[in-house]
Input
Amino acid sequence: MRLSEILGKEIIDHTKGEKLGVLSYAEFIIDEQGGYIHTLEIPLTEWNGLRKRKTTIQFRWNKIYRVGEETILVDPSQADIQSKY
Output
């Protein structure tokens, strides 16, 4: 699978079967020493009233349960979430 093919897949909470969203943009953090993908980083922007909130969700690659043809199964409790205005 090419990295470009991961975009457009639905992100599913594998513990609840709940759709979390569609991956439209992502960054991959690569371990240069080992040469493997360390983290999938997904930036999100939400409007909260009149303020724009930027959130970054990071999933360690070894905590992504499965990348299928149309979905990516993750456990949100294993994610690192950072929000700022």
